[in-house]
Prior knowledge:
GO terms for molecular function: oxidoreductase activity, acting on the aldehyde or oxo group of donors. This protein has helices spanning about 15-30, 80-85, 105, 115-125, 130-140, 145-155, 165-170, 175-190, and strands spanning about 5-10, 35-40, 50-55, 70-75, 90-95, 125-130. By secondary structure, it is α/β, with parallel strands linked by helices. Helix 6 packs across helix 8 (about 175-190). It is globular, with a radius of gyration of 16 Å. The two termini are about 20 Å apart.
Amino acid sequence: MADIKNILLVGVGGQGIILASKILAKGLMSVGFDVKMSEVHGMAQRGGSVTTQVRFGEKIYSPIIGKGQADILVSFEKMEAVRWIDHLKKDGKVVVNDYEIPSAPILIGSAEYPKGIVEELQSKTNVTIFKAADIAKGLGNIKTMNIVMVGALVKAMGIDNIDWEEVIKNTVKEKFVDINIKALRKGMEQI
């Protein structure tokens, strides 16, 4: 694959987006791609917006994805998908975790969580929406939600031929390897 692929992962602080990006970057590098990654996590510890941009191909010069350039947008929280949709290519794909994390204005009652997000996304783009949090809870650990999303991403991008299980073994703590491999497999089943 000589062309460049752009992946934008978005969500809220504490959802494991940066770990997901690191797993993704390691896997892509393991098969010889040049990979550049950028992350923004300003108020991440307080539930703020978190984004990571992963670009891969034969040779990558910049980690930044501009508006209209993402091949795939992976949203760990559904309101974030709407916030970042303008970065998606016209023929791009969107993978969304049907999960809500209320922002500070919503929590204090000065705003309401927007309704109709799923329907709006479905009317505008090629989108797969599923409940990664429910899948992770079913596995026994909600914190594996990020790896469920990684599984869906690699399947949606057609990069599931990489040994992602080995990447997980080499990235997460040993006591969490088995549950994260199960989460990866469950995520792949969603696409």
